Amino acid sequence: IMELIISISFLIIITLKNITAIKGIILSRKFLRSKSNKPGSLNTSRILIVIPVLREVNVIENTLNHFSKLKLKNIQLSIVLVGTVREIIEDKKNSELLTRDVILLWVEKYKENNANNTEITYEYMESNDPQGDRASQITFAVEKFKIKETKGIDIIGIYDADSLPQNTTLEEVRAYFDAWVVCCQQPVHFN
């Protein structure tokens, strides 16, 4: 009889632990799915895209045109293109036009034609690092942007100068972050 009482007590304890665990899972799922809990679900998500550039004269205008046509439902997009003095030092004597020249002309034209568009902004920054490597350009841009930006950034993305993301990419990435993903990497498809 004592063994039966111990067995029944053990089963009751295990059952209560399982019920408590299931209740915790249900409450957690409700919490994670609640709109008030998701960072971007009630407000507009602020996304910073950093595009490091070095000798991108032939591709950058096409990339900028492509980004300007992306769908931005509840997204405020800031695109920071970051160049480096390395291009100026190495290429000024070889080329009449530098990547920053193409970018600055494009941004000026974009601002003239889209003066009322507050969903997307473009900015060019230039790193003084003569190494001009991609990592230092990205770090430079993120640090500079964080200093000048007071509203905060929800998501930071990094693209190459010749990247052409799908039209709904930013909305899809935002959905991942709404599900409390901290980091995601988008697969790259080449045509």
Would you give an account of this structure?
The protein has helices spanning about 1-35, 60-65, 85-90, 100-115, 135-150, 170-180, and strands at about 45-50, 75-85, 120-125, 155-160. It has about 190 residues and is α/β, with parallel strands linked by helices. The radius of gyration is 25 Å and the shape is elongated.
Summarize the structure.
By secondary structure, this protein is of the alpha/beta class. The protein is built from six helices and four strands; from the N terminus they run αβαβααβαβα. Helices cover 46% and strands 16% of the residues.
Q: Return residue spans where pLDDT drops below 50 for at least 5 consecutive residues.
A: 35-42
Mean pLDDT across the residues is 78
Distance between the termini: 74 Å
Q: Report the strand count.
A: 4
The percentage helix is 40-55%
Tell me the series of helices and strands, N- to C-terminal. HEHEHHEHEH
Discrete helix count: 6
Spatial strand arrangement across the major sheet: 3-2-1-4
Overall SS class: alpha/beta
Broad shape:
elongated
- Please describe the biggest sheet, giving its number of strands, its sense, and whether it closes into a barrel: 4 strands, parallel
Strand content: 15-25%
Radius of gyration: 25 Å
Topology diagram in text:
Layout: H1 2-33, E1 45-52, H2 60-67, E2 75-84, H3 85-91, H4 99-113, E3 120-127, H5 134-148, E4 155-158, H6 169-178
Parallel strand pairs: 1-2, 1-4, 2-3
